[in-house]
Amino acid sequence: VAETASTFAELIVADATLKAAKTKEEKINLLDTKLQNALAMFMNIHSRFIFENRFYEARKEGLVSEDKITEMMVEAQKEGYQGALATYHPYFWAAKLHFFIDDVPFYNFPYTFGYLFSLGIYAYANQKGANFEEEYIHLLRDTASMTTEDLAKKHLNVDLTQPDFWQAGIDMVTEDIQMFMELTEEFI
Q1: Would you write out the chain's pLDDT as a tens digit for each of its 188 residues?
Q2: In CATH terms, is domain 4-187 a member of 1.10.260.40?
Q3: Which of 5, 1, 40, 30 is nearest to 125 (CA)?
Q4: Domain spans of the chain?
Q5: CB within 8 A of 182, min separation 6: which ones?
Q6: Which domain of life is it from (predicted)?
Q7: Is pTM beyond 0.85 here?
């Protein structure tokens, strides 16, 4: 939840910039940037989570060899990216510092949660319009004093255990994908 304000602000700026874009090329570039971010959150960090989870399970059995770790990394990337990559980064586990922060396991997962939470808030804000600002300020003030579930219930009247909130944010990314596909259709 610590990234909520910055991610929410990024979404506002990205959409405002996209609306102000004058050319098709500008729109394509801006959407590409937004979609790269979504890809990182939905697929890259998911593959990291899969890898880390499997690594900790394997580690319970003893030392894990470099070859096994590398194999687990590739398998996690294949699963996390749903086979969408042509090549893999087998030594990503060695190149990414986050895997070596041993006092914070699953370091990457909160980024995806925060991204999804911010997307959901942004979708909610778009529905509420100008009336949302005061609610948002109160939500931010309470972020360190209650659980995310309680925060969403109190300030957004949303039950985070239900899929609607999350789906609203994902739908926004889906709309960006559709717009990107329409704008780039002539290049395919």
Answers
A1: 777 889 999 999 999 999 999 999 999 999 999 999 999 999 999 999 999 999 999 999 999 999 999 999 999 999 999 989 999 999 999 999 888 887 888 888 888 899 999 999 999 999 998 889 999 999 999 988 999 999 999 999 999 999 999 999 999 999 999 999 999 999 88
A2: no
A3: 5
A4: 4-187
A5: none
A6: Bacteria
A7: yes
